[in-house]
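Entry type: protein chain
Record version: 2
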Amino acid sequence: MQKYLIKSALVVNEGSIRNADVLISNGHIEKVQSRITEIDTNVIEINAEGKYLLPGCIDDQVHFREPGLTHKATIYTESKAAVAGGVTSFMEMPNTVPNALTVELLNDKYNIAAASSLANYSFFMGTSNDNADEVLKMNARKKDVCGVKIFMGASTGNMLVDRHTTLDKIFRESEMLIATHCEDERIIKMNYEKLKKEKGELAASDHPLIRNEEACFESSLTAIQFAKKYNSRLHILHISTEKELQLFSNMLPLKEKRITSEPKREMSKRLAPAAINSIAQQARPIGMGQREFFRNQFRAASKRVTTTSPSTPASPSAAVLTPSIPPTSSSGTSPPSAATTRSPSTTPTGTFR
């Protein structure tokens, strides 16, 4: 396989920026040194003098459109866009068409990605009220599948899980990370019927009144109670209310936490600095898109929020050259605590810790 030697780059990694060379061999970063002299003639040298070399970002929640809606986008087109923006690993959600609710349907996604994805990839196993046994088959593949996704509020297709017996079984028996979309279906329906009775015609502005703060809080509380009962590895996606932050604590070291979360982008715009600090201290993101990554960088500099440096080297495809501009912050971000993503060749490239 072709070797690449990136020379004289300003390498941004693990909380520092330093001038270094980077050797990429057999699809992996082999060396990062102040100066690398490579005599192998099969090396392509890239002069990166005056440019920043950044680790690739990991996006833990993408919604691609393959299979089922390929007239909109495919795994190839979406991974191409991701890599162009500096996102070199993604974890894709199961609410495609059909929903990835069986081992066979999940395998289909992996096969498509193996043939067409330009980025490292992994896919969440979908959950419904009646496929718990199928979900638990993923325990045998916990190093390859990034997690189990549970929609505790209704979403597209047959993806709602509101039966406590199903939730109890999955939280009790799953050995994988459980990622939840937390909105209480009972409260959502109650709010909908109330507004429908009062107003007749509903508008888009009614959405936050239907899926309100209480619906989010009660659902997150339920998920956390199950996780604590069985010591499950729970990650609550896109926390959207300040009230939910009361459910998290910072009493344990980051590496020992079994329950984590990440804020929804819109929430970070609304919250006061104190609440933003609370999120950074209490909740560990298991992956961010590029925009969230840089927002965290700016916030770290301006609010003195501490973030965690990457504990594993970036993927070789993570090499992203950018024009030389004064850095806002040199802090890093923490990769996800999930399973291995696969490179386009289907070879695992590293475990997120």
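Comment: The chain has one domain: 56-314.
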